[in-house]
Amino acid sequence: MSLPTITAIATPPGSGGIGIIKISGPDAFSIGSSIFRPFKAHRHFSDNTISNGSQGGKSHFLYYGHIVNPSNHTVLDEVLITFMRTPHTYTREDVVEIHAHSGPYILRSLLELVVQSGARLAEPGEFTRRAFLNGRIDLTQAEAIVDLLNAESSLSLDMAASQIAGDLQIEVVRMRKVLLDILAGMEAAIDFPDDVGTPLEQRDSHDLIQTDVLNPIKKMIERYQASSFLRDGLRITIVGGPNVGKSSLMNVLANRDCSIVTSVPGTTRDLIETHLMLNNMHILLSDTAGLHDTSDVVEKIGIEKAQARIEASDLVLFVIEADVPITENEHHIFDIIGHKAFILVVNKTDLVSSSFKPDIPAHWKTVPVVTTSALYNRGIEQLIEITGKSLMARMPETPDPIVPNLRHKLAFESAYSSAQAVATGFLNEIPWDLLVIDLKASIASLDEIIGEAVNPDVLDQIFSQFCIGK
Ligand SMILES: Nc1nc2c(ncn2[C@@H]2O[C@H](COP(=O)(O)OP(=O)(O)OP(=O)(O)O)[C@@H](O)[C@H]2O)c(=O)[nH]1
Ligand SMILES: [Mg+2]
User: pTM, whole model, 2 decimals?
Assistant: First the structure.
């Protein structure tokens, strides 16, 4: 059963050199040829409306001419048009692209004409959904197209490109085949116990699941965790004792007032977060409650949150005051953050002389030091530069090409727990008809990743992230 023919403006809104109208579906060629008048009689071009598949031009050629409203013969635009015959197209359906002049009015009039001629307006992501439904791409590749369109850094671009090439899918299909082969062996042994030549070895099957399914899935889940900075940004946390200027620093780095600043120590009691771009990197910056010993219940909770956030951060900015010697409390903070990458920020340098040299304990000396005045916006450029360098040093040089997203990770987790139940079940001589249930569940979870048996709601959710025309 073929799907209705759909159409959309495929180029972004606004004025530009050209704008493209895309038409996909069984009627794309007849619609395209009914509204196009070539300038010259082309040998290959046929605008007759006989439905023997000969309408339109030669596949994947560009034709030059006019778009004409057939009901009143008005010319709408001078265009280039291409007819692309199934299956060598984005959607695997017949596709027509009209390369018109850009501009909202002209494109809307052309779109209206295409709709009057029999196409329906496409929903967001519907062209890509067709590519998926027609088997040209799997779900991981469709998701990678969204990532590609949204990529903010070259690293996330590489990641999406590898997923479009199908690397994640290949890996999942491989694991799935291992489980399917074991399933086939078990079902044969259950149904025809006397006819099975070489029965499945429980120990071998356990080992095979361990090496070829469980270990690779574990690696995938680790990759998800390791790449969280690409999705959520690198985490930088500002810490220090009370009143040293942490929130002031947050505000100058973010270039807006995110966090309240007062002269009262203990102003910040909760985690304050903001996203920003720094040296082309996507950053999640957090301001925290000043770390110190306190009996204030609210402040205590804030300090616990700060400590948890330090653990989860990629880089810590440890702020101290230039005009005050390092305190006992700050030695204690150093011990808390000593195992993380951090930069020592000596703030309030406006309160000391210009020849000031921070007096830093000998065992802190390996740490990069930046002097700033958050109040007068001094030293901030240098802080950004050193922060950028420190983050770059922590980035993987050759990032893993296959990185699952959250949906994949959740499916991998459930595939893992069912496959693990099967593997241990083999060792513990659990009856096979019970193991088959877990084995099927594990296969079903892998199927979800590539879209073999995916819930329509999940499909809607994925394709709704696209823009119209993709
Ligand atoms: N002179 C000077 N004062 C500063 C500087 N940075 C911050 N301050 C002042 O120091 C006081 C505390 O600043 P905050 O940014 O609230 O400090 P904080 O570390 O977030 O404080 P808590 O949230 O209470 O822990 C405010 O009065 C700021 O104006 C600076 O570079 N120079
Ligand atoms: Mg504060």
Answer: 0.63
